């Protein structure tokens, strides 16, 4: 594989995955979209509404343990304003966010349930599914939601053949497998960020340019730069200087930058380099104050 900074995509796979996702979406009243809090924009599509349709959507910013709490608060506010969806911060270890996720999903589905009842149908539990890009924590969220309730309902006649549903409470049923939003290239920067957080397969890129791109991105933020300088005891965030500092050399004094790249990516993914959010928040026009 070349050492260029390039993420390889498979358009055929993407189209197929999107089709499968759309089929599953037909089964539910409400969608729980999980994003990686480290990349609140890049871990979704810019035109996600086109993919998910007009279904009511709840946004979870997962892996919140890996980012700065205060910075994340401003992202929650931003996403609420720009998507008009409820936004909840979650992490795999916390449990107190669960009740809120369940309540929000039920509330979001209520208009649909009311509409069914207005047509003369009996009230039924809302149906939800978890969607998101690879590795954002979809399975962890499903496990948390279903742990308290082991009531498998099984396949519903006329609703689905293979899908399993779990009753979370009398008002909510959850599809027990997630819908996968395939990662794809809206732009190269987004693609590389998805590689940082393991949302794209390691076969799709070479580690050195991707790790260096991470170091470059972190270098642009003075606070993040300081964290990483401190962690590796280096001035400049390059694979060479980190390899030297760690004494990762191959024979004949050449630096083992491949090993270094893999360590840098792992250190970032495990949260050892610091708590970073790698997307830039676009400026929002404040219509309310300008109208004053
Ligand atoms: N630090 C951290 N790791 C998480 C969190 N949620 C999931 N993970 C880890 O992220 C990886 C992917 O999680 P998984 O639920 O399988 O993601 P999925 O591919 O979207 O289903 C696993 O190694 C999880 O242990 C979280 O909130 N914080
Ligand atoms: Mg999974």
Write the layout of secondary structure elements.
Elements: H1 11-25, E1 30-36, H2 48-52, E2 57-62, H3 69-83, E3 87-89, H4 97-118, E4 126-132, H5 138-147, E5 165-169, E6 172-175, E7 179-180, H6 188-196, H7 207-219, H8 222-232, H9 239-246, H10 257-269, H11 287-290
Parallel strand pairs: 1-2, 1-4, 2-3, 4-6, 4-7
Antiparallel strand pairs: 5-6
The site of guanosine-5'-diphosphate has 15 residues, from α5.
Describe this structure in words.
This protein is an alpha/beta fold and 292 residues long. The chain folds into 2 domains: 11-180, P-loop containing nucleotide triphosphate hydrolases (Rossmann fold, 3-Layer(aba) Sandwich); 206-269, no CATH class. The protein is 43% helix and 12% strand. The protein contains 11 helices and 7 strands. The protein has helices at residues 11-25, 48-52, 69-83, 97-118, 138-147, 188-196, 207-219, 222-232, 239-246, 257-269, 287-290; strands spanning 30-36, 57-62, 87-89, 126-132, 165-169, 172-175, 179-180. Strands 1, 2, 3, 4, 5, 6 and 7 form a 7-stranded mixed β-sheet that branches. α3 links the parallel β2 (57-62) and β3. α9 packs across α10 (257-269). The longest helix has 22 residues, at 97-118. The protein is elongated and about 80 Å long. 36% of the residues are buried. The mean pLDDT is 90. Bound molecules: guanosine-5'-diphosphate and magnesium ion. Residues 138-139 line the site of magnesium ion (MG).
